[in-house]
Specification:
alpha/beta, Aspartate Aminotransferase, domain 1, 2 domains, eight-stranded mixed β-sheet, 12 helices, globular
Length: about 400
């Protein structure tokens, strides 16, 4: 973030204390999360946060915490090899649906964000184009900007959040190097089908592009859906890079344990970037995850238990006048606010946080052109059921008290 009272103009940082210091132009292309400003409205801990995806459910496994403490006491306090703890890689590889060589095709990273950034930096040169589906996770744009790439946006259309095949074809061209997507999607909850993957695979083959698939929410699926991984798609061959993480599935966002799966040649390039960027993930935390996986079969692929939360949050927002779109997977739902208010999504989000004590994420934060998301909000539902019941009470009371927000 820039210092207070500063501005970035023509690659130069200017503020009241220091002027004309050199700043790379790429900084101006990085995403600036408006969520930080919204979070400042949650004073005193009384606001219920449904904006961020930090999980209250599931809880961090107590045994995993004990394993981390034991690893620290056992002296696992120095560098791990940059590729990652080999036992942890072996355990993760054993849980993947496709055969994966943990020695050459799997790398432990400092969270999924570093995996994403390393993958893009390993593939994209300045001026190369990267296709991104929106609404989007904003760090996709930042990673592309760091590489000097040019994002080509393809819209996912409500209510099913599918892309138009013709629009996708039009986005590809001779400068296309990669496609970046998230399934289940953040923020929509849409899960790509085999048909959608097949369309993408055909175009990647035609234009010699690589698919980078963020699948950190793959354990969260609902309503009979089945997660399809990019690695499952025969048409992609070696053109797929799959990103995973323990952050949401195991409630250890602060541990920053992610991973990236790719063929040996791509993995080699990604690893070189990973070493240059951060050197490797925290050794004792990797060891703890490996030990826990050894002690508890299936630990690395937990079954999601957010079905009740998904149903409840859709009911809450539908009942007070929003149009809440049930997600296929993940831990977020999108809601259309137009039947509830004439306000834009950011004004509504601030008003709800300040006056109703409920914080949601404005939809404009997930679009390159912010106004395209002004009729949407994102709601995180990886929360306790009692918390969501309190959300219902607060929103119902606020709606009844404020006539501007009576459902139409």
């Amino acid at each position: 973030m820039e210092p207070p009272h500063s501005s970035l103009r023509n690659g130069t940082l200017q503020n009241s204390a220091t002027t004309d210091l050199p700043v790379a132009e790429r900084v101006g292309n990085l995403a600036r999360s408006g969520l930080f400003g919204l979070l400042a409205t949650a004073q005193g801990g009384h606001t219920i946060d449904l904006a961020l995806g930090v999980p209250a459910v599931p809880v961090t496994p107590p045994g995993l915490i004990e394993m981390a403490c034991a690893a620290l006491r056992d002296g696992v306090n120095q560098y791990e090899q940059p590729d990652g703890n080999i036992e942890l890689r072996q355990r993760i590889a054993a849980e993947l649906a496709v055969p994966t060589d943990p020695a050459t095709e799997l790398t432990i990273t400092v969270g999924a964000t570093t995996a994403l950034t390393a993958a893009i930096l390993a593939i994209v040169d300045p001026g190369d184009e990267v296709i991104v589906f929106e609404p989007l996770y904003e760090n996709f744009i930042s990673a592309i900007a760091l590489a000097g790439g040019v994002p080509r946006l393809v819209t996912m259309h409500a209510p099913d959040w599918c892309f138009d095949a013709a629009e996708l074809r039009a986005a590809f061209g001779p400068r296309t190097k990669a496609v970046v997507l998230c399934t289940p999607n953040n923020p929509t909850g849409h899960m790509l089908t085999r048909r959608e993957f097949a369309d993408i695979a055909e175009l990647c083959e035609r234009w010699n592009a690589v698919l980078i698939s963020d699948e950190i929410y793959s354990t969260y699926v609902y309503a009979g859906n089945r997660h399809v991984s990019a690695a499952d798609i025969a048409g992609l061959g070696d053109r797929n890079i799959v990103i995973g993480s323990l952050s949401k599935s195991h409630a250890v966002c602060g541990w920053r344990i992610g991973f990236v799966r790719a063929n040996a040649a791509l993995s080699n390039s990604i690893r070189r970037v990973h070493v240059a960027v951060c050197g490797g993930a925290a050794a004792p935390l990797q060891a703890a995850a490996a030990r826990m996986a050894a002690a508890r079969p299936g630990f690395l692929r937990p079954l999601a238990k957010l079905d009740a939360q998904r149903v409840l949050v859709v009911s809450i927002f539908d009942d007070i006048g929003f149009r809440c779109i049930p997600p296929d997977g993940g831990c977020y739902a999108m809601a259309d606010i137009r039947q509830f208010t004439d306000d834009d999504c950011e004004s509504l989000a601030y008003r709800l946080a300040q006056q109703a004590g409920v914080m949601v994420a404005p939809g404009r934060f997930f679009y390159a052109v912010a106004a395209q998301g002004d009729h949407l909000i994102r709601i995180a539902f990886n929360r306790r059921l009692a918390t969501l019941d309190e959300v219902r009470r607060r929103l119902s009371a606020y709606q009844a008290a404020d006539q501007r927000f009576i459902a139409r």
